[in-house]
Amino acid sequence: MHVARILYPVEVLGPGKRVGIWLCGCRHKCIGCSNPELWDMQEKYNISLENLMELINKIAKINVIEGFTITGGDPFEQYEELNMLISELTQFSNDILIYTGYTLNELKAKRNQQIDFILSAITVLIDGKYVEELNDNSFLCGSSNQTIHILNNKFKDRYSEYLLNAKNQIQNFTTCDGVISVGIHKPNFVNKLKESIEFKGLEDT
User: Fold this and answer.
1) What's the average pLDDT block by block, 10 residues per block, for the chain (205 residues)?
2) Closest CA to 22 of 179, 41, 140
3) Are residues 1 and 157 in contact, defined by beta-carbon separation less than 8 angstroms?
4) CATH: 3.40.50, 3.30.70, 3.30.390, 3.20.20. Which one for 3-199?
5) How far, in Å, CA of 148 to CA of 127, rounded?
6) What integer pLDDT is reported at residue 176 of this predicted model?
7) What are the domain boundaries of the chain?
8) Contact criterion met (CB below 8 Å) for 1 and 160
9) What is the pTM of this model?
């Protein structure tokens, strides 16, 4: 499967200290997307499920994993691999949140057994394409047309409290490739970031 990033602890895309997983591939190509570099399936991001789980096991040995957030790209562009990944992740936590540009109804309409399993196994699906004009700081959503679906009632109270009391924040991670900014960004974030980089005389990679 093609996985661009694994970060821990992600604390701005769901409750608790979570493992964030960014998958590659996206056909939506939304204007203003914060991760356009993940639209394509780049070979450098190809990793076996076995090696991916080894990395997650290393995190779990010395940290508490309170959930997983899977985004991209669009995770459902790799639904076969995602299906297998979800099966493995549930041994650590059943609180799995997925972002997708497809709507829940579109995914159900595919009548695909693997997609149906994913929807039955995860806790939350945040669906819908990103629309720059509708980016109004809606909590957890890139734009207000997107919907937060709580699919596992066992976590309903946890998410109800979280959605009521939390607010959008940005979390920066320093990696070997530079700084990765995680969270729900304001409109025109990418262009503003490029302007800031140029103003400071830094190189945009």
Assistant:
1) 97 97 97 94 96 98 98 97 98 97 98 97 98 94 97 96 94 86 78 52 55
2) 41
3) no
4) 3.20.20
5) 7
6) 79
7) 3-199
8) no
9) 0.90
